[in-house]
């Protein structure tokens, strides 16, 4: 068997292991978010908005999508749902008539604070199995995230 075929198989197996691990983690996250009536995507955007709210600059959908590394159209659809649930507001942007300015409501802030605690607990428990390798794993993930343009 040629070496290049074997290398391809190994890369595919590595990807399959990564996807399996991601799926296991995401199932736990989804189960943790269920009592809050949030999907993982809704949680990511709501938590990101809460974290980004410290900036004095108005937050736009595109800024949020870029921060969360999500597709702009998906971000818009998820934000519509969060707005319908009364967790966020979309208002006219103060200087860009084409954009909407985003804000978290008090209800959204309280829910985000509770959900973040649950998700952080799930993360700690799930990734705790890496033991001393957790730091190296986090560095590799950051490398992947930083390389995404």
Characterise the protein shown here.
The protein has 149 residues and is mainly alpha-helical. Helix content is 68%, strand content 7%. The chain contains six helices and two strands, in the order ααααββαα. Strands 1-2 form a two-stranded antiparallel ribbon. The longest helix is centred in the N-terminal third of the chain and has 31 residues, at 3-33. The model has no long low-confidence stretch (mean pLDDT 87).
Structural features:
149 residues, mainly alpha, 68% helix, 7% strand, globular
Strand order of the largest sheet: 1-2
Number of helices: 6
What form results from the Cα inertia axes? globular
Q: Point out poorly predicted stretches.
A: none
Mean pLDDT: 87
**Gap from first CA to last CA:** 36 Å
Major sheet summary line: 2 strands, antiparallel
- Please tally the β strands and state the result: 2
State the share of residues found in helices, binned by percent. 55-70%
Radius of gyration: 19 Å
In short, what is this structure?
It contains 6 helices and 2 strands. By secondary structure, it is mainly α.
Strand-helix topology:
Layout lengths: L2 H31 L6 H13 L8 H8 L3 H13 L3 E5 L7 E5 L1 H22 L6 H14 L2
Antiparallel strand pairs: 1-2
Helix pairs in contact: 1-5, 2-3, 2-4, 2-5, 3-4
